[in-house]
Structure formats: C-alpha cells, structure tokens
Amino acid sequence: MDNTNLKILRILQKKARIPNIEVSRLINLAPSAVLERIRKMEINGIISGYEVRLNPERFGYPLVSFVQIHLTPECDHRHVADLLGVRDEILEVHFVAGEDCFMIKTRTSGTQQLNDLLRDLTASISGISKTRTFVVLSTQKETGQIPLD
User: Fold this and answer.
1) What are the φ/ψ torsions at residue 10 (nearest 5 degrees)?
2) Measuring CA to CA, how many Å separate 115 from each of 36, 48, 89, 107, 133?
3) pLDDT of 3-19, one tens digit each?
4) N or C: lower Cβ tally within 10 Å for the chain?
5) Which residues, 6+ apart, have CB-to-CB distance to 96 below 8 Å?
6) pLDDT tens-digit map of 76-104
7) DSSP of the chain, one letter per residue?
8) Domains 3-43 and 56-135 share a fold
9) What's residue 100's pLDDT?
10) Segment 15-48, tens digit of pLDDT
11) Inter-residue contact 94 to 104 (CB < 8 Å)
12) Domain coordinates of the chain in residue numbers?
C-alpha cells in the first residue's frame, strides 16, 4: 500500500461519492491513474464496497443497544451466528473472547421492539443461556472509517 493509495482511501472514506476528477485534483494525479488505482483496490478487496449512511431516527429507529448473548457449552456458535445474522434489527454480530458469548448491536424503534426481539431470540435459538442488555443513552462517535496513518 503506497502513500498515493492511502491518500485516495482517506478521501473516499470521508466522501465516497466524490467525482474522480476531484480526487485527481486533490492528490495531483491524472484522473485515469486515480481510476485505475481505485479499480485495483476494489479487485484486491481493499475497497469492499460503497454504501449510503441513513439517519436511523428519521426512519423510526432511535434506540441503539448492545446485547451480550451467553451460550451453553454444547452450543454451536456458528449456527447461532447464522441465526443472529438474518435479523434486520441486529446490525453487528461479534463472537467475543473471555466467555462463550456474542456481543450484538441492535437498532430498534424503542424498548418494546427490543424486548420483543430478545424474547424471540431466547425462545427460538436453543443454546442461549442468558442475555445482558446495554441501552445506549447517547452516542458521541459512530463511524465506519478506519485510521489510515
């Protein structure tokens, strides 16, 4: 990864829809060279996609929570991960070290929908021994950008 690619990635992380010609101007490189570098980074999996960030509150989903899901020792965590991954209310699924458990991030319309989700998960997924929920009161930083220093 050379310095020019890092410059391109820093720009794209901040503004993915920036025109190629503008990126070219910002880093003082020909537009065709910028486009070729971006294409190579896409092919090599460095750039894995582009997405629009929506305001969840404008769509009626203001409540964010993190939930620890503890599993029984005999539970197949890969199967549980698959079942958790199909739920729209679940934004992230992480199998974490320390205990046999997952940490999930949810976004719901409120506490009732969160309660319904947790009840449904514990009723429908065998192997969940307990859950522990952390409701987010406020968010100071939320980003998908990675540091490129």
Assistant:
1) -60, -40
2) 49, 34, 12, 12, 10
3) 999 999 999 999 999 99
4) C
5) 102, 103
6) 999 999 999 999 999 999 999 978 799 99
7) --HHHHHHHHHHHH-TT--HHHHHHHHT--HHHHHHHHHHHHHTTSS----PPP-GGGGT--EEEEEEEEE-TT--HHHHHHHHHT-TTEEEEEEETTTTEEEEEEEESSHHHHHHHHHHHHHHSTTEEEEEEEE-S--S---------
8) no
9) 79
10) 999 999 999 999 999 999 999 999 999 999 999 9
11) yes
12) 3-43, 56-135
**Rounded to an integer, what is the distance from CA 128 to the centroid of its chain?**
23
pLDDT value of residue 121: 97
Q: Which two tokens stand for residue 70?
A: 């503890």
Query: 């890969």: which residue's tokens?
Result: 78
133 touches 144 (CB < 8 A): no
Distance of alpha carbon 20 from its chain centroid, rounded?
26
The residue count for the chain: 149
Per CATH, domain 56-135 is 3.30.70.920: yes
What is 3-43's CATH topology?
Answer: Arc Repressor Mutant, subunit A (1.10.10)
pTM confidence score? 0.85
